[in-house]
Amino acid sequence: MNRKYFLNFLKYMALVLFAIITLFPFYWMIAFSLKTSFEVIQIPPSLIPKSLKFENYTIAFKMAPFVRYFINTIIVTALSIIFTVIIAILSAFAFANLEFKGRDLIFAIFLASMMIPGEVLIVTNFKTISKLGWIDTYRALFIPYMANVLYIYMLREFFLTVPKQLYYAAKVDGASDWKFLWSILVPIAKPSIITICILVGINSWNAFLWPLLVTNSVDMRLVANGLTAFQSDAGNSYELLMAASTIITLPIVIIYIFLHKKIMSGISIGGIKG
């Protein structure tokens, strides 16, 4: 029995150690954001600020239009979630419930496309966006990535767990495919859909390379690109840079902390075919 307690103790100590290692960079960022410029360059560095300089956040907000960056990011994130989820639902339903020629082959090709790195498609997507005249528009920021095979796959696997008898019973009662999808199937798949919403939101919020390519004006920057541009404005004022980083990072971290269980449950439900 003592050996069992000892092993549990080692397990929890290891978990605590990994938690500290994971959370320490976030603490260091927040601590630096509250220090004076002298404390930031002090050797050896102090773990706890001597005086909390909350005005660093005010100064950072004044030096760059972070409010505009947040508005842009929220708009793009909301549009990405709405259209990505709708496309995933419709596509997953078609591959799971509808019978049409070449269905399985098309889905296999879709799955095979997941092996292609996203960076390979950037040049083609950029040329298309340029020809359409969408540079520096919200459309360029979310339309090229609305269809995501991973989310379609997750929902399809979930839809396949729903008994076919339910679909046939709805058809007998006169329900159309459209009504069955939105009245019965979508409410049942709510956990997976919430998971997809969260994942799309996190990816959109953290997007960097693509928004950097398709936006030229300051007014169209997202938070990640705005932070990069702010580095040159802040110069050696690392406390301001850390304050800006905290402003951008904390919202998505807080969302993940509160919703990580839904993410894990949605992935596990969508990834297991019953």
TrEMBL record:
Family: Belongs to the binding-protein-dependent transport system permease family.
Name of this chain's protein: Carbohydrate ABC transporter permease
Gene source species: Clostridium lentum
GO BP annotations, alphabetical order: transmembrane transport
InterPro entries, per the entry: MetI-like, MetI-like_sf
Residues passing through the membrane, by range: 12-30, 69-93, 105-126, 138-159, 180-202, 240-259
Record-annotated ABC transmembrane type-1 domain positions: 70-259
SUPFAM superfamilies in UniProt: MetI-like
Keywords: Cell membrane, Membrane, Transmembrane, Transmembrane helix, Transport
